[in-house]
Design brief:
146 residues, globular
Length: 146
């Protein structure tokens, strides 16, 4: 959530989405991991010809008020890229995908900041989802100072 991280991840995420050919209306995923990434991508898109809205998916529906699972400017019919901070098992992305579909959205794919390479990507792809990651654990771990 640092300014430096957000200013780097937003444009990189937006570029990855556009390089994939995903014409998204909105980006978002399960709170809390996806929230800063989705907001950074949305902010990076603001000056482009095609701004992308950000939303968040609650882990559980609110017990009061509207009881919504999705918060933010998500709209029925939106084309969505589900955002993940790290893909491990794929369970968080799967939960967000289910919420988006239940609310009338179309999931274009999943964008992960880091693929931990523990089977989550393959599990999501087995569900018919396209998955893109900005980096992998095997690219990061060797660079961690010891």
């Amino acid at each position: 959530m640092s300014p430096e991280g957000l200013s780097l991840i937003g444009p990189l995420g937006l570029e990855a989405i556009r390089d994939r050919g995903w014409n998204a209306d909105a980006v978002g995923g399960l709170t809390l991991g996806a929230d800063p990434i989705a907001c950074a991508i949305s902010y990076a898109s603001a000056s482009s010809g095609s701004p992308v809205r950000a939303f968040t998916v609650r882990k559980e529906p609110k017990s009061h008020g509207t009881g919504k699972l999705i918060e933010g400017p998500f709209r029925e019919g939106d084309r969505v890229v589900v955002i993940e901070d790290t893909v491990t098992t794929g369970a968080s992305a799967r939960k967000a995908v289910e919420a988006v579909r239940a609310a009338g959205g179309t999931v274009l794919g999943v964008l992960a900041l880091v693929d931990r390479e523990e089977g989550g990507r393959e599990a999501l792809e087995a569900d018919g989802l396209s998955v893109v990651s900005l980096t992998t654990a095997s690219e990061i771990v060797p660079r961690i100072p010891t």
